[in-house]
Amino acid sequence: xxxxxxxxxxxxxxxxxxxxHQQLPLDSSEQESLYQILHSLxxxxxxxxxxxxxxxxxxxxxxxxxYPTQLNQxxxxxxxxxxxxxxxxxxxxxxxxxTLHFHLFNSFPYLRKLFFYNCFNHAPLSLSPSFSFPSxxxxxxxxxxxxxxxxLASLLxxxxxxxxxxxxxxxxxxxxxxxxxxxLNLEExxxxxxxxxxxxxSSLGLLKQLKVLDLSGNKFEACLPxxxxxxxxxxxxxxxxxxxxxxxxxxxxxxxxxxxxxxxxxRFDSFGVPLFxxxxxxxxxxxxxxNPLSGAIPEIWENMGGVERLGLSEMGLVGSIPVSMGVYLxxxxxxxxxxxxxxxxxxxxxxxxxxxINLENNNLSGRVRLSTRVGQKLKLKVGGNRGLCLENIxxxxxxxxxxxxxxxxxxxxxxxxxxxxxxxFLLCFDSLSLLVGLATLAAGVLVFTGF
Length: 451
Hints:
Elements: H1 2-22, H2 28-41, H3 47-50, E1 63-65, E2 77-82, E3 113-117, E4 139-151, H4 152-156, E5 164-174, E6 188-190, E7 195-198, E8 212-214, E9 219-222, E10 236-238, E11 243-244, E12 260-262, E13 285-287, E14 295-296, E15 309-311, E16 317-319, H5 323-328, E17 334-336, E18 341-344, E19 355-358, E20 363-368, E21 378-381, E22 387-390, E23 407-408, E24 418-419, E25 439-442, E26 445-448
């Protein structure tokens, strides 16, 4: 059996060796164009000397060729990645004076992925209006290239095979072209931190395969089109830090797969927290911060138990914090309600599950009670609420920056019950105090009397 395995291994090795010697070399125009691109991105490295052979057999990290399935087929470059990311992704590094002649990419008719990271940071670089990348492209990524200045429409023209467009931290400008509706295979459109402006075309709602739409950090304005609610496969919608206005469209209830929603820091006006949020069952993160929505916090939380992070800061909210938030939002790791006009008490249920809660700069009042099993893992910020006091449970000192400025509550004649959890219960008392009385343990509640 061992001899058979050795023979099979030798046969496989011989076959692969034979195929490698029969494989045709990379097309000469592709090889030469790649040398020129590498030299323009970093002329300090002797690329031709370091990689003198067929670039499909020996090339820098980030250069990927297809592998012919039949003999006598010419290999082609299908992926190009430039810009050092990390030791795990050591793409060819770009120099400080990197430049590029984009017409060289016309030599790669089979190119499927193009990636640039932190390559163009100094001299302005723009695309010719007549230029277009190969129509074979499926993934186009430009990240942190602030001197790359070009209309978005010029970059995307004729690229109807695209599945992913990721343009982050560049200087692309202009409007989102309505022709983008022709990109029927598009699954991700991330255009954050550019100089884009104008309205979102209603034709965007035709992209039924879209799973990620991120237009954050631009200068988009006007109303959101109702057609966004047609993106039924959308998992992430991030429109934060723009100038969108009007009302948040009710049609967004159609985003039944949505897990992440960020509409923060726009100009959505006084229509309150959208009630349809309670009808989007898979939401995990919701951020509406910095929009003057005003109104009271609605009772929509019963069907939102999966929410883990909720940002409702700086919205002009009034009234009390619903008790139902503490009842149903049991998976919360972050809640932001700071810088509103909320009043009344802090629901004890909100403090039961730990995480981070920011209630600063409201008009809240009453007692802040922390159970001993939660106090050590809860980061609570309540400064700027003069009516709040900290209930000193069994003489324990308050900790954390958010509680340090709270005044202690006045002692009551009959102490409240202290909730605890098994062996994690911690009894704290001042070294000078004397505990007198009876301790009764029943049903998981420890009640001390006779202080």
